[in-house]
Amino acid sequence: MELKLKELEGGITEPMGFRATGVSGGLKDGGYKDIGLLVSRKPCTTACLFTKNKVKAAPVALDISRSDNLISAIIANSGNANCLTGTTGDNDALTMADRVEELLSFEKGSVMVASTGVIGRKLIMNRVNYGIDKICTLIKTENNYKNFSNAIMTTDKKMKNAAYEFELDGKTVRIGGTAKGAGMIKPVLEAPHATMLVFLTTDALISGDMLKLALKDAVDISFNRISVDNDTSTNDSVFLMANGIAENHLIDADGDNFKIFREALTKVCQSLARMIVKDGEGASKFINITINSAATVSDAEKAARAIGDSFLVKTAIFGQNPNWGRILAALGYSDAKFDLSQLTLRINDLVIYEKGDVNKANESLAAGELLSPEISITLDLAAGKKEYFLWTSDLTCDYVKINANYLS
Amino acid sequence: MELKLKELEGGITEPMGFRATGVSGGLKDGGYKDIGLLVSRKPCTTACLFTKNKVKAAPVALDISRSDNLISAIIANSGNANCLTGTTGDNDALTMADRVEELLSFEKGSVMVASTGVIGRKLIMNRVNYGIDKICTLIKTENNYKNFSNAIMTTDKKMKNAAYEFELDGKTVRIGGTAKGAGMIKPVLEAPHATMLVFLTTDALISGDMLKLALKDAVDISFNRISVDNDTSTNDSVFLMANGIAENHLIDADGDNFKIFREALTKVCQSLARMIVKDGEGASKFINITINSAATVSDAEKAARAIGDSFLVKTAIFGQNPNWGRILAALGYSDAKFDLSQLTLRINDLVIYEKGDVNKANESLAAGELLSPEISITLDLAAGKKEYFLWTSDLTCDYVKINANYLS
């Protein structure tokens, strides 16, 4: 098995048979795009992962009820999460799907809905309907993945797109993706956390079961490994649509072709996950926390999350302040097993603490390392052989300002 | 049983037989007080609770080894936590205790040590010793609880003192206390979390077992109910010294006198706990979260902590922004059982959400309520009869600035 991945310019419309665009329906002030539509010319086998938050937005509940259907389109909006909106909200989500099905002559039950924005406000449906009417006409002549990516942004500063191409049995196959998400980011999709919305497309031919398995595996080492602010959103969703137009040999069991597909999918997911952390609300640093030599994977994860979620570690990194004691203090309350006299702490490549003592020379160099926009914190717990990594961002004044004011 | 509590001006030196003061040893820049000494003229039955963090500072380890001893004094320093300092740190903590024992002719093993400040730096012992020599002379002529309170402050803006007087069998008994702590506050003392240091004194006559029980009960509904930033410190300690000089009937079993003592102690602890939250690093609001009608106490605590620790709830309150959806989103990921169609959410006395829908009229009034420096968030989960409360603060730009710069 050999995977030759070719990175493509573009995103969700790189795989054959997909079209997408975005319009303004007036849900956001200022005429920004806030309605996005993604369609496939062939109904798609679809795998989805949704938030584990028990307060689930109306569109999430609708999509869950459709998760075994063949899906032709996803209608998305920003500016309003349609969450904690009661039965009105449920009806509104259904109306959005119904309207797209009618206007574009799709099967009943073949459209999913994704919403992001403020919680607890009912959608202004005349604006939503206006936007849907507009976009269902426009999609026939315009195919622009950037307009879709733009339409799903909330506090995001940048669009997030990725696409790769590879071969399966001599056939060229593509996977594309786009994501939004900057705050409320700690996806727990039946394992992730955030308001993170991720749309993935592929023209590969693959069975529903194998598509679900590939998505679960890819998400587990991408979107499930990021945390901006440890708040798990009510609306997190990852959609993966596969229309089979590439006409490769159907992937319906484990094997080389499945592994190749999964690896390519993981690459797309990790690219988007890194973009989300880098664009984290107010973030000035990307922090890669790696825990090695743990007794169990769960221990390694506990240590990584305690450090990655610590207000004090995150503010120290923002301050470019090598206060490594805070890292070990977070480890100390993490419940992970470790041997303080044998563990090793590194910041980037500098050993800061080992054999029960600080390395004074490297400590003074660490401040220089922290000037870099990407920081790695590596801890060897000296307690076993397991490992875990987590990507997170620093905690800044801008984060506080954005979230003190955000109500849109 | 009736408790008549009289609030006293003052703090740890209100109970008979205690003296305290503070000096500068040069551990902090600028000549600020950084060495504090608390002594009792009679050796004290002493109950202590220490951090559960597995990384424990050297003085905490020393104190734990002395927890069954009669204690005559506590020597405290700020400016350096003496944590992650290896065997040098252990020796330094012991030297501090030894030196006080010698200079003041106390029994071996009768002095405890408390340190707070930056982690991972060794104490400059010539300065510490200089300060100890100075304070052991000064304590003979100066008795000033404020100087002690000052000497233990780090990022605290205000001193925290409380004292109460009450009657037991016709004898007057007093309990006094002082605390420091503003950040790294989430005490988990074998159950609390922070760098929180709390010193409590009483002239009551009470057995060691009953003293420990009273302290555990009082801490459980005071210091264990506060969270500033969800970081559990390596140095948290609560000390309660009882010298018996009030000559009440010995409290050595449960009964009215024990209950009166415990209630008075709880009052002192709750007063100090509230002061810690109000003086939380950068805090602009005191937030009282109350969860009612939960299925279990553990559920109620999970809900309270998810809400109280949420970056998004804390920044919304800082912004005086009634984004109540964030409160219910935090509840949603808390693992607590609730009935979304029956629960009630109040901000101060305003019902914001009930019977599955927002109260629009009250929602618009909520912004006005959030101008107040004390905010209560009350959630009725409609799942049972249990309850829990938690006191926390908001998350502000000042918190980020303080912790981005703090290395002292």
Concise summary:
2 copies of one chain form a homodimer. The first copy, chain A, has 408 residues and is of the alpha+beta class.
Using the 3D structure, state the CATH architecture of the largest domain in chain A: 4-Layer Sandwich
Radius of gyration based on Cα positions of chain A: 22 Å
How much beta of chain A, percentage-wise?
Answer: 25-35%
Q: Whole-number average pLDDT of chain A?
A: 91
| CATH T-level fold name of the largest domain in chain A | L-amino peptidase D-ALA esterase/amidase
Seen as an oligomer or otherwise, the chain set is homodimer
Summarize the largest interface: chains and residue counts: A-B, 58 and 58 residues
Largest sheet of chain A: 9 strands, mixed
Helical content of chain A, roughly? 25-40%
CATH superfamily of the largest domain in chain A: L-amino peptidase D-ALA esterase/amidase
State the order of secondary-structure elements of chain A, H for helix, E for strand.
EEEHEHEHHEEEHEEHEHHHEEEHEEH
Structural class of chain A: alpha+beta
Distance between the termini of chain A: 48 Å
The CATH class of the largest domain in chain A turns out to be Alpha Beta
What overall form of chain A do the CA principal axes indicate?
Answer: globular
